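QA checklist item 7 of 12: single-chain prediction sanity check.
[x] sequence parsed
[x] length recorded as 174
[x] structure emitted
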Amino acid sequence: MRKQLLAARRTISSDTRAAWDRAIGMQVIEWWKAEQPSALGVYWPLRDEPDLHSAYAELERLGARLLLPVVVQKDTALEFADWRIGEEMVKDAMGVAVPAELRLQAAYPPALLVPCLGFNPLGYRLGYGGGFYDRTLARYEPRPQTLGIAYQCLQAPFDNDDHDVALDRIITEA
């Protein structure tokens, strides 16, 4: 299923993707304005994930404190680093962009944007299989508010596993 969803996501034209990313970003901004969490865990897009950089810039302009996930060790939960738009970035061991000046936070963000390769109608996500977000959500209490980010066309019927954690909300372009 992961291969099928990746292939489907790759077939979305760049113009369509840009329009959908703007629509998703606007919803994220409206959600943030209503909720005003003290910090928001965001993500750097990989493998054709929705690119919300313009929404991140607007969120920062509005006063949001943004944190990026960092893999500090394989098979562990994610950590989060303070991030400011425009600062120098480097690739970590997993090939993901992280701030060059890594400022890991002791406190966990109260809200997370969670990229989804796919999702089902019950709010469970399908990722790339590394389990980073599952371990992250299982680790922290109180659990952060979770907003899955995906394209509507990637909703798929699949069963969740016992270790899976349903997201609070899925935001798509629709």
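[x] summary fact logged: The radius of gyration is 15 Å.
[ ] second reviewer sign-off
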